[in-house]
Each structure stands twice: as structure tokens, then as C-alpha cells.
Design a protein that fits this description.
- The complex is a heterodimer of chains A (about 280) and B (about 260).
- The longest helix of chain A is centred in the N-terminal third of the chain and has 7 residues, at about 85-90.
- Chain A has a 23-stranded mixed beta sheet that branches.
- Chain A has 2 helices and 23 strands.
- Chain A has helices at about 35-40, 85-90; strands at about 10-15, 40-45, 55-60, 65-70, 75-80, 105-110, 115-120, 130-135, 135-145, 150, 155-160, 165-180, 185-190, 195-200, 205-210, 215-220, 225-230, 235, 245, 250-255, 260-265, 270-275, 280-284.
- With about 280 residues, chain A is mostly beta strands.
- In chain A, strand 19 and strand 20 (about 250-255) form a beta hairpin.
- Chain A has one domain.
- Residues about 50-60 and about 80-125 of chain B have low confidence and may be disordered.
- Chain B has about 260 residues and is mainly alpha-helical.
- Chain B starts with a helix and ends with a helix.
- In chain B, helix 7 packs antiparallel against helix 8, helix 11 (about 200-215) packs antiparallel against helix 12 (about 220-230) and helix 12 packs parallel to helix 14 (about 250-265).
- The radius of gyration of chain B is 22 Å and the shape is elongated.
- Chain B is about 70% helix and about 0% strand.
- The chains are: A mainly beta (about 280), B mainly alpha (about 260).
- At the A-B interface, strand 11, strand 12, strand 14 and strand 22 of A face helix 8, helix 10 and helix 12 of B.
- The complex binds zinc ion.
């Protein structure tokens, strides 16, 4: 297996302008449907230096859409459809060719102390970054202009976007997520005991699905929206208007500021905050 | 049973995990040993002081929480030592607190013991000393968790800040620092809310106002505006007016600032 491992130094670059051909001997290939796309994608495999210790993936990007998926393997596989067809036309790149002057707009991948860091912090580039890591990996993602999707991860998940939506699905552990303008969607199959969580958005809806037996102390703050849940929430904030009305299958908790409540007797803090969106808390 | 053995079983005793035979043996030792008897009452009082011993809660959980807390404390201490002066503008105070906390932790797990009189009937000086130990330990847990790499742990640290004394300047300082510098938006948000615990301190309003002029994350700005309204701080008006008229500011933040101005008048 080809691994770019140089003792915690920069282990690889995926150029946004020039495509690195994926190593032929690499057994972990993600076959792409479109052969033209394949030419424009680059893939890199990075080993975690200490497989028996907790793993962490850190992603920082300005323009890319980031998708992270847990898989049944032990390396981090980073793939980027570095040049979109639109970009190709814009830059007048002849079909079947790629530019050689790499560097700017590149994606940098490093590994140190079991932390794989993927960063693409230049305003050039764009497109997608797809990353596969072992299911049990903690993940921290920061994006500015595009969304984040995390699937099938078990660990401490921290995701942040300014303009994109943020979604964590089919996962377990703990989630701390925010988006300024996008929606925050979280579906947790299982939660790590004792972990605090928080979900926030300025303009988007917070849509969180939790296991039915979760024990939590809820703090829900909305300015211009409402809070809906199908959990049996015991509202503990007496000063709050707790008029309940049935809407659809869920009970509606009405109000305009902060509501405190408990689920299943209470537990770690879970905070939900949105200014213009609404809060939906579903029972799984 | 020797005193040494008794000390190692003290938390098990309090968490009722010794089993019937173990408890009988432990009680027999207590009956004959004044030192261990007083130590047991100290540890118990410490636990109660930390709200770790709600009577209705099954015993195993109390124990788990206690060790979880100790673990968090040690983890935090290790992290603080590994990264000195990064976020701590009050290092000497932190180290003092750490030393005080170590004493409290030592008591909690039954090492480093000096037998004082029984606590519940003890002298007021001892009670206040214990109260101080409890406050120190809560402070330590809050401060150490707020230093962790994991945002979830830092959020837990912020919720521990609600248990600190309203006069605790260390915790207030750590919260203000989190509001201004924490890399995670949600931790900043939670820290703004936790400042309410310290609303009696004039520093709180000042810090919130200062932070509002620096924050660029709209949802955190909104939380700070809510805090300033709750603090009824008239000095907030000029900054709110500036914000509501700032055309480059987020639209929601401008609306919120306008709303706050009306409330403060
Ligand atoms: Zn003894």
C-alpha cells in the first residue's frame, strides 16, 4: 500500500489545478462513474501513526464541500474532485489535459500524533473533498462557503460552516455543530454518556434526531422561530409560557426566548440556538 | 482491615459498592478507628458538597461521576501543564488553585489524609475549610474542562461554571476568555450565557460590552445583546446604537440591537 507518511511532516498535496494520478497499487479505490471526472480527481491515503490510539481528523477549507464517511478500514482516504467541469470551461483547460503549475489552491494533507489534517484555505479551488476514515474517529470540520456532511462516524464530532448546511447522520458519540446561514441536521443513533452537545444557527433550522432513551437537560433558545418535539419534554423554566398545542404528531412548545427542559429525567446539557430558524427535536 | 485498606475502599463505601460482607468489615474497622471514621465523614461531606451524592441516585452512578470528574480534572491539569500560558493570563492563580484542588482530590480518593475531627459535628472553622475545598474543586473542574481540546468537554466546563461561587474571579476570567477566544462558536455561546452567574460583578457587563464590539459571529453577538439587556446595563446603549446603524453588520444582529435599545430605555 502506498502511504505518504513522513513522520508528521506534510504528507501530501492534492492540487486543485493539477491532478495527481491515484497510485495504481493503492487497493482502496473509489471507482468514479464518470471517466472524465476521474482524470480530474486525486486521491491520497494517509495512515494514522498509532492505530491503537484515538484518531482525529481535522478539516479546514474555504471553498470546498466536505463529505466525511466512516468506513471499515484503518487509513484516511482523501479524495478531491479538484476541478469541476464549470471551472474547466472558465479556465479554458483543454479536454483530457491538466495544468502542471500546481501549488495555489492545493489541498494540504498532514499527519502528526494520530491527527490527520486536511486544509484548503486559499480562495482558489472549490469542488468536493471526500474523506473516508475509520468509523471510530473524532472529526473537526471548519468550512466557509460550502456545506459539510458527516456520515457513519463514532466519536467527538465538531462541525462548523458559515454559508453551507451542516449535516451529521447515522453517527454516534457527541456533536457540537453550527452554521451561520445553513441548516443544522443531526441524526444520532447512540450518544456517548456524559457528553455535552450544542447546535446553533443564525438563519437556519436546527433539526436534531436523538435516541428515544436519551437523558438530557435541554436548553432551547429561539428568537423568531418555535420549538417542536415529539419527545416527552418536562419544561423546567417556570417563567416561560408553556402553552402547548398539538400540531401534527409533535407537541409544540411555544415561546420566543429560552426554554429549559429535561428528557427522561435529565442528563448532560444539550443546547439548541437559532435566531431566524426553528428547532425540531425528533425522537428516533 | 488496616487503615491503608480502609482508605482505598472509602469511595466504594460511599458509593455502596462494597457489598454486604465488605460493608460489615469496613464498619467494623470504623468502629475501632477514630482516624478512618473522621476521614469517612470528610469524604462523604465533600461528595455531598459537590452534589455528587443525591440520595435517590443509584450508587454505581455516583461513583462513575466521581471518577469521571477526577479524570476530567487530571486530564485538564495535564493539558494545562503541557500548554502553559496559552489561554491563561492568570497562571500563578491557576497554579495555586491547582495545588488547592490536589488537596481536595487527595481527600476525595482517600490518600493524603490528615485526620481532623468529625465534620458534621465539627468546629465551624473545619466546615468553612471544607466549603472552601468544595469551591476550589468545583473551580478546578470548571477551569480544567474549559482547557480541553474537545468542544464537548469545554461545554461541560462551562456548565460547571454555574456551580462556582458568584464571586469566583478565576472562573469569571476563564468564561470571559472563552467568550473572546474559544475557537468553537457553540462554546462561545454557552460561555456568554454562563456569565449570568456572575451578573453581580461589574466586570461582567464591561466584558460583555467589550466582547460585543469584537465578536463577528452573529449568533454570539445576539447572545451578548440578550445578556446586556438582562444586565440592564445603560452603558450598552452607545454600542447598541452603533451596531444597529452599522450597515455592514448582520441584518439579524442589527434588528436585535434595535430591539435591545428599546428595552434599555
Ligand atoms: Zn483506620
Amino acid at each position: 500500500m502506498n502511504r505518504f507518511l513522513m513522520g508528521g511532516m506534510i504528507v501530501g498535496m492534492i492540487a486543485a489545478l493539477g491532478a495527481l494520478p491515484a497510485p495504481a497499487q493503492n487497493p482502496v479505490q473509489n471507482p468514479l462513474q464518470n471517466p472524465a471526472e476521474n482524470q480530474n480527481s486525486a486521491q491520497i491515503t494517509v495512515a494514522f501513526s498509532n492505530p491503537s490510539q484515538p484518531r482525529r481528523l481535522v478539516v479546514k477549507t474555504l471553498m470546498h464541500k466536505v463529505t466525511i464517511k466512516g468506513y471499515d478500514g484503518k487509513d484516511a482516504i482523501i479524495e478531491s474532485s479538484a476541478i469541476s467541469e464549470r471551472r474547466r470551461r472558465e479556465r479554458n483547460i483543454p479536454p483530457g489535459m491538466h495544468p502542471l503549475n500546481v501549488g495555489r489552491g492545493g489541498i494540504e494533507v498532514t499527519e502528526a500524533n494520530n491527527v490527520v489534517t486536511v486544509s484548503a484555505e486559499t480562495p482558489l479551488g472549490g469542488g468536493d473533498i471526500q474523506i473516508q476514515v475509520p468509523v471510530e474517529t473524532s472529526v473537526t470540520v471548519n468550512t466557509i462557503n460550502n456545506g459539510v456532511s458527516v456520515e457513519n462516524i463514532s466519536g467527538e464530532i465538531e462541525v462548523e460552516s458559515v454559508n453551507g448546511g451542516v449535516s451529521v447522520t447515522n453517527s454516534s458519540g457527541s456533536v457540537v455543530a453550527t452554521s451561520m446561514n445553513g441548516k443544522v441536521t443531526v441524526v444520532l443513533d447512540k450518544v456517548a454518556p456524559g457528553k455535552a452537545m450544542s447546535f446553533s444557527s443564525m438563519n437556519g433550522t436546527i433539526d436534531v434526531t436523538l435516541p428515544a432513551d436519551i437523558k438530557a437537560n435541554l436548553k432551547m433558545k429561539v428568537d423568531n422561530g418555535d420549538v417542536y418535539t415529539d419527545f416527552d419534554v418536562k419544561v423546567t423554566n417556570e417563567a416561560f409560557d408553556t402553552t402547548e398545542s398539538k400540531t401534527g404528531k409533535g407537541v409544540r412548545i411555544r415561546g420566543n426566548r429560552t426554554t429549559y427542559g429535561t428528557i427522561n429525567g435529565g442528563g448532560p446539557e444539550m443546547q439548541f440556538t437559532t435566531f431566524n430558524g426553528r428547532i425540531l427535536i425528533h425522537k428516533k | 482491615m488496616t487503615c491503608e485498606e480502609a482508605k482505598t475502599r472509602m469511595t466504594d463505601y460511599w458509593s455502596r459498592t462494597l457489598g454486604e460482607a465488605g460493608e460489615t468489615e469496613f464498619n467494623a474497622h470504623l468502629a475501632s478507628c477514630e482516624t478512618c471514621r473522621s476521614e469517612v465523614s470528610r469524604v462523604g461531606a465533600l461528595w455531598q458538597g459537590l452534589d455528587l451524592l443525591p440520595l435517590e441516585e443509584p450508587s454505581g452512578k455516583v461513583r462513575d461521576r466521581f471518577y469521571e470528574m477526577l479524570g476530567a480534572y487530571r486530564q485538564g491539569l495535564a493539558a494545562a501543564e503541557a500548554r502553559p500560558a496559552k489561554r491563561w493570563w492568570t497562571i500563578p492563580a491557576w497554579q495555586m488553585a491547582a495545588a488547592a484542588g490536589l488537596v481536595a482530590v487527595g481527600l476525595g480518593i482517600g490518600y493524603g489524609v490528615r485526620g481532623n475531627g468529625p465534620l458534621f459535628g465539627g468546629a465551624p472553622a473545619e466546615v468553612s475549610q471544607l466549603r472552601e475545598e468544595v469551591a476550589n474543586m468545583r473551580q478546578l473542574v470548571a477551569l480544567s474542562l474549559m482547557q480541553q481540546q474537545s468542544a464537548s468537554d469545554r461545554l461541560r466546563g462551562v456548565s460547571w461554571a454555574y456551580r462556582a461561587e458568584p464571586s469566583d474571579r478565576e472562573v469569571l476570567g476563564a468564561l470571559v476568555s472563552a467568550v473572546n477566544h474559544d475557537a468553537n462558536v457553540n462554546v462561545r455561546l454557552a460561555a456568554v450565557d454562563a456569565l449570568r452567574r456572575f451578573s453581580a460583578s461589574p466586570e461582567t457587563g464591561r466584558a460583555a460590552l467589550q466582547s460585543l464590539s469584537k465578536q463577528t459571529t452573529p449568533i454570539v453577538q445576539v447572545a451578548l445583546i440578550d445578556l446586556l439587556v438582562d444586565l440592564k446595563d445603560p452603558q450598552a446603549a452607545p454600542e447598541l446604537r452603533r451596531l444597529s446603524g452599522n450597515e455592514t453588520a448582520n441584518e439579524g444582529v442589527r434588528q436585535k440591537a434595535q430591539w435591545a435599545l428599546e428595552r434599555l430605555q
